[in-house]
């Protein structure tokens, strides 16, 4: 278990002039402190190292409430201020999956370090690592609060890119000009709505976490970075709501088309019924087997009855046209 933890854990240590990326050979080498001049980013893949997390917390004299938090199986979104550090728990969408799977992430933040723990291997943070290694921008001149901001920004940006990509694909398949009241088209609309609900749930969860971070008061933690993040998530939620309204309009239009078609069919059947009811009535009368039906003995009775039927049909059609029923 310890070897697995060490394989899935890496450290980036940086300052204005220095950068170092290392791996550990022993758990005792994992040091999380605010006393060094450099900022440290510890990253771990996997949540099944709870006993090792406990050892690290104890070895580094971190708040022991972290042990209780790590021992829980399920974690709702949390932002908890502890002794000189902040514990953050969030569930993040894995947008590279078509099913929009999710993973649990933990962040333990203090002025001198950031410990990110991810449930699954792979993330959206390589561009941050590249900027740290290449000394691009201001990231190496900033402390851990800016690093946490970049990590959360990566998550938000990934949501926006994945949402936009799926929105473009959806607009091609669900073009308003080709709306068809078919089960296939309706299924596509409902599938897209489910995707949007997943995105919206994740975006709202992230926004709530950012709002909580804005209220945090801890040394070397600048909350100004998070106002921009909150605006980004708000814009994403607004875009999702707008598309959801569009999809609802398409569903309503599908129902309207289906209702209109059903009304047309019923109107046609009703008109045909009204035309043939009197004809059926006349045919029924003279189809009875009573002996005393005087008209049956008329020489031209059959042709007279046919003429009456034609006249009734013509009058009915003329009346319907005058009323503009068809």
UniProtKB/TrEMBL annotation:
Membrane topology label: Multi-pass membrane protein
Localization per Swiss-Prot or TrEMBL: Cell membrane
Pfam families in the record: CorA (PF01544)
Highest taxon, organism lineage: Bacteria
Name the UniProt record assigns to this protein: CorA family divalent cation transporter
Entry's family note: Belongs to the CorA metal ion transporter (MIT) (TC 1.A.35) family.
Keywords, sorted A to Z: Cell membrane, Membrane, Transmembrane, Transmembrane helix, Transport
Species annotation: Polaribacter ponticola
Transmembrane segments: 269-288, 300-320
């Amino acid at each position: 278990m310890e070897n697995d933890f060490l394989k899935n854990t890496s450290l980036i240590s940086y300052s204005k002039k220095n950068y170092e990326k290392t791996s550990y050979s022993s758990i005792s080498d994992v040091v999380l402190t605010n006393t060094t001049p450099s900022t440290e980013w510890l990253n771990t893949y996997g949540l099944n190292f709870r006993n090792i997390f406990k050892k690290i917390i104890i070895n580094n004299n971190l708040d022991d409430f972290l042990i209780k938090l790590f021992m829980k199986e399920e974690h709702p979104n949390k932002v908890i201020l502890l002794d000189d550090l902040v514990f953050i728990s969030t569930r993040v969408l894995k947008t590279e999956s078509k099913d929009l799977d999710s993973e649990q992430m933990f962040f333990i933040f203090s002025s001198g370090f950031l410990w990110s723990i991810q449930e699954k291997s792979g993330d959206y943070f390589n561009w941050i690592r590249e900027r740290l290694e290449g000394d691009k921008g201001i990231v190496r001149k900033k402390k851990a609060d800016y690093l946490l901001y970049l990590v959360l920004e990566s998550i938000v940006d990934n949501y926006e890119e994945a949402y936009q990509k799926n929105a473009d694909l959806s607009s091609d398949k669900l073009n308003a000009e080709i709306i068809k009241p078919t089960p296939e088209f309706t299924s596509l609309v409902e599938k897209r709505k489910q995707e949007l609900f997943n995105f919206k749930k994740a975006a709202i969860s992230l926004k709530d976490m950012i709002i909580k971070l804005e209220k945090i008061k801890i040394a070397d933690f600048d909350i100004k970075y998070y106002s921009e993040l909150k605006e980004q998530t708000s814009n994403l939620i607004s875009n999702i709501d707008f598309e959801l309204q569009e999809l609802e309009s398409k569903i309503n239009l599908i129902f309207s088309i289906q209702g209109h078609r059903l009304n047309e069919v019923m109107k046609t059947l009703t008109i045909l019924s009204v035309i043939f009811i009197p004809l059926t009535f006349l045919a029924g009368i003279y189809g009875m087997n009573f002996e005393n039906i005087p008209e049956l003995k008329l020489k031209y009775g059959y042709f007279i009855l046919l003429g009456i039927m034609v006249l009734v049909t013509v009058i009915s059609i003329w009346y319907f046209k005058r009323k503009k029923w068809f």
